[in-house]
Amino acid sequence: MAHPEGQFVFALALGAGVVAQVVARHLRLPSIVLLLAVGVLLGPDGLGLVQPDALGDGLFGLVEIAVAVILFEGGLNLEMRRLRRQSSAIQMLVTVGAAVTALGGALAARYVMEWSWSLSVVFGTLVIVTGPTVIRPILRNVRLRPRLATVLEAEGVLIDPIGAIVAAITLQIVLAPALDSFTSGLWGLVVRLGFGAAAGGAFGYALGRLLALQRVIPEGLENLVTLGAVLVLSEVCNHFVSESGILAVTVAGVVVGNIDTRVSRELREFQDLLTLALLGILFVLLAADVRVQEVVQLGWPGVITVTALALLVRPANVIVSTIGSELDARDKAFLSWIAPRGIVAAAVASLFAAVLEAAEAPGGTELRALVFLTIALTVVVQAGSAPLVARLLRVRAPGRDTVVILGAEGLGLTVGEILREAKTRVVFLDANPGHCRAAEERGFPVVFGNALEERTLARARLEQARLVVGLTANDEVNSLFAQEAREEFGVREAYVALNRTDAGVTPAMLGKRGIRMLFDGAKEVERWNVRFRHGQTRVARFRWAGKPVEEKPGPDEETRRLEHGRPAAGPDAYVLLAVQRGGVWSPVHTQLEPKAEDVVAVALYLAEEETARQELERLGWTPVGSEAA
């Protein structure tokens, strides 16, 4: 049985889009570059396998749904606490800056392309947008200063719905030019922005609270409910106030993303994957719908127009919008260079071309071609050169070279001193003033406060941490701290101490979150802190010799642990704190596989030191230096 042509086109576009993004990720290229190339290759000007006309009007329905999901996902990743710090620059960029871009784009099209004023103004409003689909890959490949990254990401998310609404109203005015249409257009802009923001905020708050409740939505169905709710929100808003749905879903995404729900992480992961799939489909289909000859016919005037947007209009936008902001000259220079257009520009341009053609108005084909040329050149040149420009302007964020330890007591301070031997910067977090003073007296930077509060974590600069250690006597606090560091600040390595493994937080739970269990097993942190406080411990060093185990205690699991150099259950007489491998110290964890010449720092309980030494030597660890005497 032959499949319908539309179904074949959809499936092929999806598959090709996924493959293109996989290849782009391996090559560290902007995915849009390959998606555009694949669309042209498979389209009518290439192999002819993807024929967007086969989808009929369904293409624009797909575009509307996909854009709603993409912008909701973009809003999910905006953190209000970061937005508030840079609110002045962000507000100016999406208002005054948008007007500067629209005016500059219109002037460039008018005097370089020699288009009519009406078509030039439509083009100017179309290129207001940038978009999260092109900005976020740049931020993933180039670690920028937090304030600069926040401004770029927020502008990309918020400018898309604003630009699309402004462009839609501009097209309406152009197709029916009159004083009353201009006045109604301005009023329509206010209504659409106001209604979309209000509806999105209210809906997002309700959805976020619903997701935060237990047992209201059956476990496993949260992502499906969210997806359905977003699409309903978009269509209902468009039904009552046309073009308002795109802003509503964006605002809803921001609100939901800043409400702590039980599925925040899973929701972001689901929306991210769905966005990648939809992005691939749209770019392949829309690129296939544009004829190469249409772009080529623009000639040098088209290239000069895009160049003017990048080198004249964008810098003017940034200069006007960032007056009085915290951004310095280097931040502004980078911001002036980065303004690639994405999927919203492509989608709206394709829709406008169809509307102009249906109204028998000239210029729709040329308009779409110039927008796609703008997308291609800005993505290839600006996104491609972003790492080099960031390096030259020195706007990259500092490298992740810090260790942040929660718990400035005996065990934590000892681990910190060992890690500091390798010239590692160690920062402590603690809510106890006495513990903080003790750490400061030993020369450590200290952040005082509750480690589960956002402002405390922000002061600890976790975005600069290469690993975090949870070392309090509270297993839950350790786990939540490590999870927050990984999910919200992108810290790759996280270690936590567990006082016990048979209740509360378990090693299996940690493993699912990508967190490692500290030391050679569960340790009573408070007991060891008391021992350190009373001078009942000493730190010794042992080297791994791989000595065969002479006796095995019985259970298979214990046997495996002994064979891999991890101590068997027994007296709480020692703790393997840190291991030195290749000249670098790192925390010991339960998954550590000892290698030849590994050296471990071990805390020994003086009252049971001889027992501890015998056990360690039996496991294959031999004393180092003076310890061997």
* Span of the ends, CA to CA: 83 Å
**Large-scale geometry:** elongated
Q: Helix/strand-derived class? A: alpha/beta
Largest sheet: 6 strands, parallel
Q: How is the largest sheet built, in terms of strand order?
A: 3-2-1-4-5-6
Helix content: 55-70%
**Quick check: average pLDDT?**
84
CA-based gyration radius: 29 Å
Low-confidence stretches: 552-571
Account of the 3D structure:
61% of the residues lie in helices and 9% in strands. By secondary structure, it is of the alpha/beta class. Strands 3-2-1-4-5-6 form a six-stranded parallel sheet, sandwiched between helices. The longest helix is centred in the first third of the chain and has 34 residues, at 179-212.
Secondary structure layout plus pairing:
Blueprint: H1 5-27, H2 31-42, H3 58-76, H4 80-85, H5 87-94, H6 96-111, H7 117-126, H8 132-141, H9 146-175, H10 179-212, H11 222-240, H12 245-257, H13 264-288, H14 292-296, H15 299-321, H16 329-337, H17 343-358, H18 364-393, E1 402-406, H19 410-420, E2 425-430, H20 433-441, E3 446-448, H21 454-459, E4 465-470, H22 475-489, E5 493-496, H23 507-512, E6 516-517, H24 525-533, E7 537-544, H25 556-563, E8 574-581, E9 584-587, E10 599-605, H26 609-618, E11 621-623
Parallel strand pairs: 1-2, 1-4, 2-3, 4-5, 5-6
Antiparallel strand pairs: 7-10, 7-11, 8-9, 8-10
Helix pairs in contact: 1-2, 1-13, 2-13, 3-11, 3-12, 3-13, 3-17, 5-6, 5-9, 5-15, 6-7, 6-15, 7-9, 8-9, 8-18, 9-10, 9-12, 9-17, 10-11, 10-12, 11-12, 11-13, 13-17, 15-16, 15-18, 16-18, 17-18
